[in-house]
Design goal:
Blueprint: E1 10-11, H1 46-51, H2 61-91, H3 100-124, H4 126-131, H5 165-168, H6 172-191, H7 194-200, H8 204-214, E2 218-219, H9 222-239, H10 247-276, H11 293-321, H12 324-331, H13 338-364, H14 367-372, H15 374-385, H16 392-431
Antiparallel strand pairs: 1-2
């Protein structure tokens, strides 16, 4: 029986450029919903799931829909908040801190510190998270003592804060794409006004359609392609403004569109590689070798740690070599202002949360959907930063973006239902 992807498009025999089509790293992950349970699986009898709990939230069908809705809501909100915060940091106020290389390095350093802090904090207050059934945000425990071997650098092998070159080298490409995405995006935002920045990034969705077709070997339905391109055109109309054109910001935005569209595809591949290469210890007799809930949880945390660590190795030396740190120290007179450092810390925190919910969105839906969903969010951010004072054609584009998103969502649900029906028919045929 041929494999069908979760996002409702059938597979083709064409192999993706970076991997074999039969490799498990090519298959989309469908494992985010187990993060809302304590047993790692949505299957099994309800009595087993209720054995360790007095009450349930996320294990019910309605609870799962609410969980997915919360992830999408925070994905939208944090993305808009990140854009608004960078607009304040780079373009408004008395500071107007126009040093994108330094800002990128500060964001990654803050994210690294927050990952360590959050890992220890969530383990410390695990009972509180378990009480409200938010245990999916808790960092998984370190492996048993007999599984621990020291890796290169620091951290025990198998822990969420390990660093082992043999494992980490598999994520260098994904880390490079992530680093270029945030670095070039910051340059585009710093050297071009927001309408120019938004206009230069409308190619993100067409790039994502190209990657979904050629990297994931998908045949996209006409509904999906039409609705996605309609979102692109609506966002173009929403962002159209009479402002000073900055060629350096526009060119940086074009490159940013490419890496922004490529990022979720490399992130999904990296997650599946991490899941396949986990050091989970000896397999118990009778096990079907399926990843457990703790495996998915550990893969989630370790991937965040590895990609951010490698990104730091790329960006921090580059920012020092280019003289960004020295220039900030020499020219900025407000380095003793607490508000300035708070804004830098907030930028890093929001960047980390956007990264986390991007990974969650990819695992819930697909890389293409995660990119397409940025269209309505970008249109809403444009209206907000314009103080809702837009031309008629911009409002037409705004509502066109949201209507096209509803069209995309409806088409994807129908295609997913058809795929599931074909899958059930194939299983019944094989059983007969």
């Amino acid at each position: 029986m041929p494999h069908h992807s979760r996002n409702g498009s059938s597979s083709r025999s064409k192999s993706p450029p970076w991997d074999d089509a039969d490799s498990p790293t090519h298959k989309p992950s469908n494992s985010l919903l187990p993060l809302s349970t304590s047993n790692g699986s949505l299957g099994g009898s309800s009595s087993k799931r209720q054995a360790g709990r007095v009450w349930q939230i996320w294990d019910t069908p309605r609870g799962q829909k609410v969980f997915v809705g919360l992830i999408i809501f925070f994905y939208f909100g944090l993305g808009g908040g990140m854009v608004f915060q960078e607009h304040v940091l780079l373009w408004t106020g008395v500071y107007k801190f126009n040093y994108p290389m330094f800002v990128t390095a500060a964001q990654l350093i803050t994210a690294q510190v927050m990952l360590v802090f959050w890992a220890y904090l969530t383990r410390l207050i695990t009972p509180a998270f378990n009480l409200i059934q938010f245990n999916f945000v808790v960092a998984p425990p370190d492996p048993p003592v007999y599984q621990k071997t020291q890796g290169w650098g620091w951290g025990a092998r198998g822990s969420v804060l390990e660093f082992e070159w043999k494992t980490g080298r598999k994520f260098i490409f994904a880390s490079a794409v992530f680093s270029l995405k945030i670095l070039i995006s910051n340059f585009a935002f710093a050297y071009g006004q927001f309408p120019v920045y938004q206009m230069s990034r409308i190619l993100t969705i067409p790039f994502a359609l190209f990657f979904a077709t050629h990297l994931q070997s998908q045949t996209l339905p006409v509904t999906t392609m039409s609705s996605a391109l309609s979102i692109t055109f609506g966002l173009f109309m929403t962002s159209l403004r009479h402002v000073r054109f900055a060629p350096e910001g526009f060119i940086a935005g074009l490159f940013s569109s490419f890496f922004t569209a490529l990022h979720p595809f490399t992130l999904l591949q990296a997650y599946n590689i991490m899941l396949e290469n986990l050091n989970t210890g000896p397999t118990s007799p009778g096990s079907n070798n399926n990843p457990s809930y703790e495996d998915h949880q550990r893969a989630f945390w370790r991937l965040l740690w590895y990609i951010n660590t490698f990104s730091l190795m790329f960006i921090v030396p580059l920012s020092i070599i280019t003289g960004s740190w020295h220039e900030v120290y020499r020219t900025c007179y407000f380095l003793d202002a607490g508000y300035f450092w708070f804004m830098l810390w907030l930028s890093g925190l929001l960047g980390l949360l956007c990264f986390i919910f991007m990974l969650g969105m990819i695992r819930l839906t697909s890389p293409l959907t995660a990119i397409v969903a940025n269209g309505p969010r970008a249109a809403s951010t444009t209206a907000l930063l314009s103080y809702f004072k837009m031309q008629i054609y911009s409002w037409v584009g705004f509502w066109m973006t949201w209507v096209s998103m509803w069209w995309y969502y409806k088409g994807r649900r129908q295609n997913l239902g058809k795929e599931e029906a074909r899958g059930r028919d194939s299983v019944e045929y094989e059983m007969h």
